[in-house]
């Protein structure tokens, strides 16, 4: 797997995990709050239904109260009129009113008229709960509620029912009405399903937003990577071009040194040897002068070869090491120019790779040459140290300085450009700061890889 893909995954996966975790926690909290709200709603709904039952009973009592208080009617006539009135007061789908006397004998039951006249005082539901007895007890306490199981008229079978009952009339009949709690459960279940649907939709929307965000981030990441890749390729091409140009310039300089230096010297030796040979053949004593001239020219050739060899790789680096070679270079510079030099070098032996050693030595040599020729400085300071696997180097002078824009096309500007290219070719960072009458400072940083 490529490094860019790993970086992209490291950026996306934590965000995805955190977002999913937040969405999950949010969904859980919403679900918990919804359940609490549903329970509160269920409690309030039951309370409102209880109050509604009480109101229904009060209305029914009001409708039959004149009959109950009519003293001119016999008990049978009252039962008949009350039965007729309550049989017509069926409400909703399963709402009706019933009346029992104190012995549990049914007087009114619009839904199951076959129960009229039957004694149901000891009847129990499937849970062993006494139905009529419990209702009579609640009515005798001034009116109250009683829960039990009873057949639902709409044909769904036995359901949980809550009834409210009071005592009415001179015979203290128990009158009541009730509602089936499965209706409340159905309503609560509907609300719960709606809440779950809303939570699910919210979760899906959140995931959709997360996926869209991931796609957008991925596309942006790919676009940035593509752009960075193109920039890196462009930089690599530029670096390769600089390296080729650098090689060409070095070879051209080396060829020029060989042609203008060693080649001319060897040609001079050749001519002097030919002249000496001809003189010896003629037995002339002047042949000795030509041979001595050959020796001088060969000495010059040896020095030129040493200079070229020194330019390719200074022997001082091998003999003394980087620190001593630089100090030797600075001593020669100070002795030759009378410019005061301050050097602070903090390096350990074998700490700097060879390519950086050569580059630094040549950089310092060229910088000192520029200072000697152009700066009119009286003081030069060189600082070199290691910091977190980075070799840092600073060379500054108190000379007349220059404007970087004014020398871009001059030979000095080309020399500075060559210095920068030398440093960048081996992965270093090169900066130069200068201002007229304020001196010049060169800074480089090299990463030392183990």
From TrEMBL:
Keyword annotations of the record: Cell membrane, Kinase, Membrane, Transferase, Transmembrane, Transmembrane helix, Two-component regulatory system
Gene Ontology annotations for the cellular component aspect, listed alphabetically: plasma membrane
Alphabetical list of PANTHER family matching this protein: NITRATE/NITRITE SENSOR PROTEIN NARX-RELATED, OXYGEN SENSOR HISTIDINE KINASE NREB
Transmembrane segments: 7-28, 206-226
Domain of life (superkingdom): Bacteria
Record's subcellular location: Cell membrane
Domain Histidine kinase: 268-450
Organism the protein comes from: Leucothrix arctica
SMART domains in the cross-refs: Cache_2, HATPase_c
Protein name: Histidine kinase
Alphabetical list of Pfam families matching this protein: HATPase_c, HisKA_3, sCache_2
CDD domains: HATPase_UhpB-NarQ-NarX-like
């Amino acid at each position: 797997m490529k490094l860019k893909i790993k970086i992209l995954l490291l950026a996306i996966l934590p965000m995805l995990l955190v977002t999913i975790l937040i969405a999950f926690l949010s969904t859980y909290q919403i679900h918990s709050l919804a359940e609490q709200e549903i329970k509160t709603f269920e409690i309030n709904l039951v309370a409102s239904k209880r109050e509604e039952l009480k109101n229904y009973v009060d209305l029914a009592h009001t409708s039959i109260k004149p009959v109950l208080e009519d003293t001119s009617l016999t008990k049978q006539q009252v039962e008949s009129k009350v039965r007729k009135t309550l049989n017509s007061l069926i409400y909703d789908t399963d709402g009706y009113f019933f009346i029992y006397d104190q012995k549990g004998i049914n007087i009114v039951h619009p839904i199951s008229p076959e129960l009229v006249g039957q004694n149901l005082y000891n009847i129990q539901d499937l849970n062993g709960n006494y139905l009529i007895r419990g209702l009579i007890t609640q009515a005798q306490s001034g009116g109250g509620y009683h829960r039990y199981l009873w057949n639902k008229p709409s044909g769904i079978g036995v359901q949980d029912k809550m009834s409210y009952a009071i005592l009415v009339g001179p015979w203290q009949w128990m009158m009541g009405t009730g509602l089936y709690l499965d209706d409340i459960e159905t309503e609560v279940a509907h609300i719960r399903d709606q809440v779950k649907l809303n939570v699910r939709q919210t979760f899906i929307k959140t995931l959709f937003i997360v996926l869209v965000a991931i796609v957008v981030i991925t596309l942006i990441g790919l676009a940035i990577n593509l752009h960075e890749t193109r920039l890196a390729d462009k930089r690599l091409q530029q670096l390769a071009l600089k390296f080729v140009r650098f090689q060409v310039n070095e070879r051209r300089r080396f060829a020029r040194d060989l042609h203008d230096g060693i080649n001319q010297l060897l040609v001079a030796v050749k001519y002097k040897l030919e002249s000496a040979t001809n003189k010896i053949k003629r037995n002339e004593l002047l042949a000795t002068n030509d041979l001595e001239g050959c020796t001088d020219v060969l000495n010059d050739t040896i020095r030129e070869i040493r200079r070229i060899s020194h330019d390719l790789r200074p022997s001082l680096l091998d003999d003394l090491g980087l620190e001593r070679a630089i100090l030797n270079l600075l001593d020669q510079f100070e002795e030759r120019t009378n410019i005061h030099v301050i050097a602070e070098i903090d390096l350990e032996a074998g700490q700097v790779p060879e390519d950086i050693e050569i580059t630094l030595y040549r950089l310092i040599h060229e910088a000192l040459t520029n200072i000697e020729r152009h700066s009119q400085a009286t003081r030069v300071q060189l600082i070199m140290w290691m910091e977190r696997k980075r070799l840092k180097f600073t060379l500054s002078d108190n000379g007349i300085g220059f404007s970087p824009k004014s020398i871009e096309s001059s030979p000095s500007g080309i020399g500075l450009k060559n210095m920068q290219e030398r440093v960048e070719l081996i992965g270093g960072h090169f900066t130069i700061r200068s201002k007229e009458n304020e001196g010049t400072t060169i800074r480089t940083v090299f990463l030392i890889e183990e």
